[in-house]
Amino acid sequence: MAFFESSVVLLITVAISSFISNLVPKISGTYISLIMGIIVGLIPLTNQTVLSFNDEIFMLLIIAPLLFFEGQETKTYLVRRKIKNIVGTAVILAIISAIIGTIILHSVAGISLALALIIISISTPTDATAMGSVSDGLILPTRVNVVLKMESLFNDATGIVLLQAALIWYSTGHLALSQNISTFFISAIGGIVFGVVAAGLLILFSFLSLQLF
């Protein structure tokens, strides 16, 4: 019953958010959804009705399918052509931006560098759907739009490693650079290997299915 009530509140909130987005097309629907979420959280009745956030369910049922379908729509030859831009934006630019953002947040808010890095890492968009929703209503040059979409499919490793580094730093008081760098390469290379193997198995399965049936 609690799950049903929570789902009804969330669905009504999404419907209202979508309705307002259609009325104000120049404002990204993501920001309107965030405002609606804050309102739901501030009202005691709706806040108590909605179930607590479960990160494992969210990753399994929301993030994984989104990344899968976004990856399916990505053309391989575009990735090969834009690999330098992808590495530059998904890794180098992401790290530089995180460092600058951490220093600014530390200076303005007066919080520790480790906590500032946690906040910056969490606020990093990690998929093409997030990028598309934020840029909704904006007119972007084709080249910029392509590069950002490609980058958003590959910045997961950077964001996760930055968050892991920040959490270790916050809990231990020490920033383990060598451990974090090795974790990054393991995540990046492991993701590539797993993706290639999974894609190969899916192609093989499809080929065998066509031969048999």
TrEMBL record:
It holds the Pfam family Na_H_Exchanger. One of its GO terms (biological process) is regulation of intracellular pH. GO terms for cellular component: plasma membrane. It comes from Companilactobacillus nodensis DSM 19682 = JCM 14932 = NBRC 107160. Keywords: Cell membrane, Ion transport, Membrane, Sodium, Sodium transport, Transmembrane, Transmembrane helix, Transport. It is a multi-pass membrane protein. One of its GO terms (molecular function) is sodium:proton antiporter activity. The chain crosses the membrane at residues 6-24, 31-51, 57-74, 86-105, 153-172, 184-208. This is Na+ H+ antiporter. Its main location: membrane. It is found in: Cell membrane. Residues 20-206 form the Cation/H+ exchanger transmembrane domain.
